[in-house]
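Field reference: sequence -> structure
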Amino acid sequence: MRRVVLVVAVLSLWSWPELSGQENRTGTGGASLQLIDDVVVGNRILANENILDGLGHISVRHRPDRFLLSRDLAPELVTAADLVEYDLDGNPTDKQAPRGYQERFIHAAIYKARPDVGSVVHAHTPSVLAFAVSTIPLRPIYHMASFLVAGVPMYEIRKVSGHQGMLVNDMRTAVALAEALADKTVALMRGHGYVAVGPNVPEAVSRAIFLDVNARVQMDAIRLGGSVNYLTSADVGQGGGQTAQPNQQTAYPRSWPFWKERALRR
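Structure field:
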């Protein structure tokens, strides 16, 4: 046991040397070391699990009106030194901050609309993207995707009057996306990708990974032919039939250390 703890400690120090004294860094607004570590590790995990490639991003809320998001950088390369603090209009709190993602407004608008959300993922995962261009709804196949029982709305950027292109790169389009998401956990973005939210980083990461698994298995089940037996609220609700809640935990505590160790091993 002592050897395992030592190895984990060495890996953490080797991977995140810039975390020393991080709580006082100007760019992170006094965020805790744990939140900083979570969002950096979350980037690495999502890249390692093929949820994000060179595009996409994950953020963490560290104050009611502030969140942390990497500068414009591929997720697998993100370190604590790359984090930038934003307000809920998508503006960096430090005017000297490096260039950010164009779609940082996605995070700002969702945090503003959803006080219960502590982390936001935006991704273009191929398995999920297939459902973002299809009339076949994305539905829960297995219990780790129970957060889908509440439904998966579709965001259509064409409905935002006067907007051109597919990027959610201003507050107007981002507010429309947050409205489409409403109180759900996942929203598809037609011809683009999706957003997934959670009360914290490990839960948001967990949902993004299980969303990918669910999408791939659903496509396989459809290819088999016949009918597909999807989960219902009675299957996943607590107390023998209660309605599943959007923020119902998907048991990440056992998976998170595994994903983290596997990502840091690379």
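Note: Strands lie at 57-63, 66-70, 83-87, 119-123, 154-155, 186-189, 193-198.
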